[in-house]
């Protein structure tokens, strides 16, 4: 681990046991609102606290050191409450996408996981920050993620996007990703025609992220 990444991990560790609300107040940020409409707010608060500069552009959260920040809510048993969003899936050029140069692989190359702890029904501002983990995939993990990726882009590339469900993928699944159900994008159909469909995004399954937090080299079934 290089010195800059070690320093980032040290800053994250300094936040352990604090509530998200306390961290927000320290940085002059608002911590409130409905959990559904403010789902990304805990991540935004921790981005500010840790000095992330990537914003919403297509760069890493910490572009100078190539690190992505992912907050992950855990219940009282230490089990992830939900899957983890990684990035959108580009639909119209799926047939030319390759794992080695994909944005999803770049996003997962080095991730700072920051758990937030508490019962499922606990308001998110009251959740406490847990032990962070700076993780990069092992060769075996990378190979399994690649298999999930290839399965998805292969299906989309031959115009079978409507067969793509969240059931596909061992560790990485694809699910709709839009502000509401009326949002549409374009993809190719089985005969090469452009069709309207719901935007999709890559998500890591909770069974994978939960296993990672216990063992960074985990390969759960």
* E-strand count: 9
The number of domains: 1
The named CATH superfamily: DNA mismatch repair MutH/Restriction endonuclease, type II
User: Order of SSEs, N→C?
Assistant: HHHEEHEEEHEEEEH
Backbone structural class: alpha+beta
Strand fraction band?
A: 15-25%
Q: Mind summarizing the main beta sheet?
A: 4 strands, mixed
The dominant shape is globular
CATH fold category name? ECO RV Endonuclease, Chain A
Helix content: 25-40%
Distance between the termini: 28 Å
Specify Rg, calculated over alpha carbons.
Answer: 18 Å
Polypeptide structure, described:
Strands 1, 3, 4 and 5 form a four-stranded mixed beta sheet that branches. A three-stranded antiparallel beta sheet has the order 2-9-6. A two-stranded antiparallel sheet has the order 7-8. The radius of gyration is 18 Å and the shape is globular. With 221 residues, it is α+β, with helices and mostly antiparallel strands. It contains six helices and nine strands; from the N terminus they run αααββαβββαββββα.
